[in-house]
Amino acid sequence: MNVSKFLPAGARFVRARLLVLLILPACAALAQSAPPTVIAHRGASGYVPEHTLEAKAYAHALGADFLEQDLVLTKDDVPVVLHDIHLDTVTDVAQKFPQRKRADGRFYALDFTLAEVKQLKVTERFNAKTGEPVFPKRFPAHRSTFQISTLEEELQLIEGLNRSTGRKVGIYPEIKQPKWHRVQGHDISRVVLPLLHKYGYATKADPCFLQCFELAEVRRLRNELGWRGRLVMLTEAKAVGADGTDYAALSTAAGLRDLATVADGIGPAISRIVTWNAAGQPTFTDLVALAHAEKLVVHPYTIRTDELPKHCPSSDALHSALFKESRIDGVFTDFTDVTLAWLRAAKVR
Ligand code: CA
After folding, report:
1. Alpha-helical regions (H) of 37-187
2. What is the mean pLDDT of residues 185-191?
3. 12 part of a folded domain
């Protein structure tokens, strides 16, 4: 019911002014920046073994904006969702296929067909040498039943959940070690891109960020392979990556200006933005400001409440340093619910 016609003219004027007073600051805040993006790092990996469909479904339910997929190829060129090129820190491959390790003692996804990979049981991440869990308070190791999924299976899961919930959760696929894959005779990017297109991820308007740690591949994706969606350059804490990417140079004003000709954002290690001294006081770099000057979004990794950065006093201090002081655009988090709760309490979501 419209009550304004029953109000005297003066009251209507006061109500209009109140509305303006309420709406203007909200518009100004929105114009300043979009609400921060919450990226479920390997799914809800703080609660469920990483990269399983169960971890993705849980992250979707917890309210993540994007779900991350790390991608490696099987022997028969099927992209599977797995953090490492190795299988031995998250599966029972050493028990099921003891003869299939390479000379370095490791088991590589690329040496197994999809049919073989599907025989493996996924578990919470453990140290392959000691058998000890990497995150002792998380899901217990070697319990229940989880599988490695293909990229396509995960895209169908997200498509299905988006349909049944009415939400629009995006994807954040990472091309893992493309240079290594090519040395082994496999071109992972050429396999992944058609699948992304098939599921409707093709332009910058689509809910997808493609990410990679290798600068040569980021350039290749844009210039040679025709990727027209959003693209994020990941940077490690160390100066130079295994493939030769110079992360230190990439983090300078000149490096970022050049990067902005192909990429839409950066995904730096948190320590490239903020570090803490022994007293728990943060020191900030100028990386976020430099990236924003080039219109690059900044999505650092990774918030882990059970493994805070060195000397960082608390999860709250970490979120505050990143979102309040540094004004990042989004974050990779193992704990979607904790990050969302902080953002809501800070009234930026
Ligand atoms: Ca990743």
Report:
1. 53-62, 93-96, 114-117, 151-165, 178-183
2. 98
3. no
* pLDDT per residue as tens digits for the range 295-332: 999 999 999 999 999 999 999 999 999 999 999 999 99
Which residue range(s) make up the domain with 204? 35-86+149-345
CATH (domain of 277)? 3.20.20.190
The Cα–Cα gap between 186 and 108 comes to: 13
Active site residue 51: no
* Active-site choice (41, 181, 299, 319): 41
DSSP string, 229-260: SEEEEEE-SSSB-TT--BHHHHTSHHHHHHHT
Q: How confident is the model at residue 34 (pLDDT cuts 50, 70, 90)?
A: confident
Whether 144 maps to a domain, the answer reads: no
Cα of 265 vs centre of ligand 1, distance in Å, is 15
| Predicted confidence (pLDDT) per residue in 111-162, tens digit | 999 999 999 999 999 999 999 999 999 999 999 999 999 999 999 999 999 9
Phi, psi of 269 (to 5 degrees): -60, 145
Is residue 83 part of the annotated active site? The answer reads yes
271: nearest Cα among 296, 238, 242: 238
Q: How far apart are CA 61 and CA 47, in angstroms?
A: 13
CB atoms within 10 A of CB 302: 19
Residue 11 maps to a domain: no
Catalytic residue chosen out of the listed positions 51, 60, 83, 86 = 83
Give how far Cα 41 sits from Cα of 171, 241, 302, Å: 11, 21, 7
Q: Which residues surround ligand 1, an ion (CB under 5 A)?
A: 70, 174
CB 267, CB 332: distance < 8 Å? yes
Which residue's structure tokens are 């948190």? 270
Q: Is residue 10 part of a domain?
A: no
Ligand 1 centroid–CA 187 distance in Å is: 18
Q: How many structural domains are present in the chain?
A: 1
